[in-house]
């Protein structure tokens, strides 16, 4: 069973991802409402995959990805954000440069999430 940590400051995103995975018997999902709590969860347990929003209070997703890449190199990471577009820094590309294995632009569907899991061979 793959253990997944989802970090996002939007409870509706946490609920959505949990609902996508709740019928799948192969995932255990843990959630955190900010980056600092997410890092605490990383210290408590090991995870196969971490999905993290980029823009959050206390610790942003880029910090999370840097820390996880350094401390838990076998843990895969997916960066998520809805902040992108013309004239803005491509934060999802930046996340990949610093170590994210994949990125998802919000909003995304359950099918998009499952395709990302398949691409990363998370099961």
Automatic annotation (TrEMBL):
PROSITE patterns: RESPONSE_REGULATORY. Gene3D superfamilies: 3.40.50.2300. Residues 3-121 form the Response regulatory domain. The modification 4-aspartylphosphate is found at residue 53. InterPro entries: Bact_response_regulator, CheY-like_superfamily, Sig_transdc_resp-reg_receiver. One of its GO terms (biological process) is phosphorelay signal transduction system. Keywords: Phosphoprotein. This is Response regulatory domain-containing protein. The lineage of its organism: Bacteria, Pseudomonadati, Pseudomonadota, Alphaproteobacteria, Rhodospirillales.
